[in-house]
Amino acid sequence: MSKETEMKNLTLLGNQNTNYIFEYSPEILETFENRHKDNDYFIKFNCPEFTSLCPMTGQPDFATIYLSYIPDELCVESKSLKLYLFSYRNHGDFHENCINTIGKDLVELLKPRYLEVWGKFTPRGGISIDPYYNYGRPGTKYEEMANYRLINHDLYPETIDNR
Questions:
Q1: What pTM was computed for the model?
Q2: Record's family (predicted)?
């Protein structure tokens, strides 16, 4: 795919008239071609302003979302990812479901070699919840990597700092 074709497929990047969607909306995600398919490398996003709503009380939940992946053919365009994460703003769901849905949506979209999503939610009621999701392409070294990282993802718990 040429750079010109690739840029035409990205409708959000540089768009000054961005419409913000306030309900869960995975169709907003856009991709572009990975130009470095010949090597493994991580792409990492940190989203310190993630919000969703508690499905029981309607109160806002706040988190930092850490998203890392090893691309294969496609990369996610960052503005579309930002808008996708923003679409959770008025979405009522449990922390665990948000993180698993984000992971599964991105695996379906990107078909990455490896992907992980970690949500670090601020405490409510005196307890924080930090769900972790990961995926490694089945039958490959990435599946082994996913199993290893899942087992070892939190060997060194953080010092409590009330986030």
A1: 0.86
A2: Belongs to the GTP cyclohydrolase I family. QueF type 1 subfamily.
Residue 101 belongs to domain spanning:
20-150
Q: pLDDT tens across 71-98, in order?
A: 999 999 999 999 999 999 999 999 999 9
Residue 76 annotated as binding site: yes
Identify the pLDDT of residue 80.
Answer: 95
78 is in an annotated binding site: yes
Catalytic residue ranges: 54, 61
Tell me, what CATH number does 53's domain have? 3.30.1130.10
Residue 68 falls inside a structural domain: yes
Q: Is 95 annotated as a binding residue?
A: yes
**Residue ranges in the chain modelled with pLDDT below 70:** 1-8, 10-17, 157-163
Residue 25 marked ligand-binding:
no
In terms of Cα–Cα distance, which of 28, 38, 104 is closest to 70? 38
Please count the structural domains in the chain.
1
d(CA 5, CA 122): 42
Q: Of 55, 66, 61, 59, nearest to 119 (Cα)?
A: 66
